[in-house]
Amino acid sequence: MEAKSSEEFVAREKPLEKEPTVEPPYGTREWIQYWSEFEGHLPTPINISITGSLVYKCPDLKWFNFDVYPHKVKLTNTGYTLVISSKWRTERPYLLGGPFLEKHVLSQIHFHWGANMMEGSDHTVDDRRYPGEMQVTFFRSEYLTQEEAIKYPDGVTMICYLIKYGVNPDDRLAWVIEGFPRIQEAQTHTRIGPLPMSRLLPMFYEDYFLYWGKLETVAGEQYAIKWLIPRAVLFASFDQMKQFRKLWDPWDEPNLRNFRPLQERENRHIFYINPHWCQYNSLLPIPRIPEPSISILSHNYLKNPWMLPPQNRTEEDTSAQETQNKSGSSAVVDPLASPTQRDST
């Protein structure tokens, strides 16, 4: 056998160089995704402001199935944060349009808060920190799970709602906070609701910020994440925010704060997608009346109304289902009948 030279072995073991990505045309959604390669490793959270952001046009963001009641909603005190996870018997809520090139399904929701009303939010807006922040995780449906999707730069998106101080309590948070007394200890969970996610999430189709940055896990792993910060906000009364601080950490002490330290923006892009409202402030004021839902039923639900939970069915859907059940039961064949009788049935 002919001996191989060391140069040949080195040449074989040398990994193939990754071809440089061609920059997509400006104005496309692919151009937004392109910057994940260069800015996805930058630290988060950062300060957000209209000043210095890049105005960019995208299709309207569409929300599907957020009015559909889940089968169950679980509220968990992990000891470090508060997590809301929901299950649907059929199709989950998802997002399309906006900066997304594909469907992103809802995964889970968690919160950040501080020891007083002057701190708590992960992000700051116009150099101001707010009492809290709700972060909603979505992942690309093709990856099937969040654990798999987070390995890819187009896999996971985090929508971050700032929580302002309000004199009156926010009804959207009230049905979540109702379960807090049952999960005061770390590593405990309870059921709440269930109510559709439109009862908690302010939905928007325009007027939001987007940037790229890394998410670092407790194990030290780092992943590129797309961060969306809408100008629409939640709000909470003093007593509502106080309930968050009553939750215990793993050492059976009140978990007074869990927000992360602010990071430098560096030279990354902050996209300001489809500006619409008055731009005097980077966040919109607290709405006087609840915004109407803009959720859309997906094609699967429209084509198969029986997939909807009872709370979402109309009288027509219920009567059609009853008729179908009756017709199905009348067509049951007696196994002891003769072949002639079966054919006539």
Radius of gyration, rounded? Answer: 25 Å
Q: Would you identify the CATH architecture?
A: Roll
Helix fraction by DSSP (H/I, runs of at least 4): 10-25%
Largest sheet: 13 strands, mixed
Which H/E pattern describes the elements? HHHEEEEEEEEEEHEHEEEEHEHHH
- The percentage of residues in β strands lies in 25-35%
Number of helices: 9
- Morphology call: globular
Supply the helix-strand structural class.
Answer: alpha+beta
CATH topology: Carbonic Anhydrase II
Biased composition (Polar residues): 320-330
Domain Alpha-carbonic anhydrase: 18-274
Region (Disordered): 1-22, 308-345
Protein name: Alpha-carbonic anhydrase domain-containing protein
What does this structure look like?
The chain has 345 residues and is of the alpha+beta class. It has helices at 6-13, 29-34, 36-39, 146-149, 171-177, 238-244, 299-303, 315-330, 339-344; strands spanning 47-48, 54-56, 61-64, 72-77, 82-87, 94-97, 104-113, 124-125, 128-129, 132-140, 156-165, 188-192, 208-216, 222-230, 234-236, 271-273. It has a single domain (23-302), classed as Alpha carbonic anhydrase (Carbonic Anhydrase II). Strands 2, 3, 4, 5, 6, 7, 10, 11, 12, 13, 14, 15 and 16 form a 13-stranded mixed beta sheet that branches. The protein has a 3-stranded mixed beta sheet with strand order 1-8-9, with no helix packed on it. It is globular. It starts with 5 loop residues before the first helix and ends with a helix.
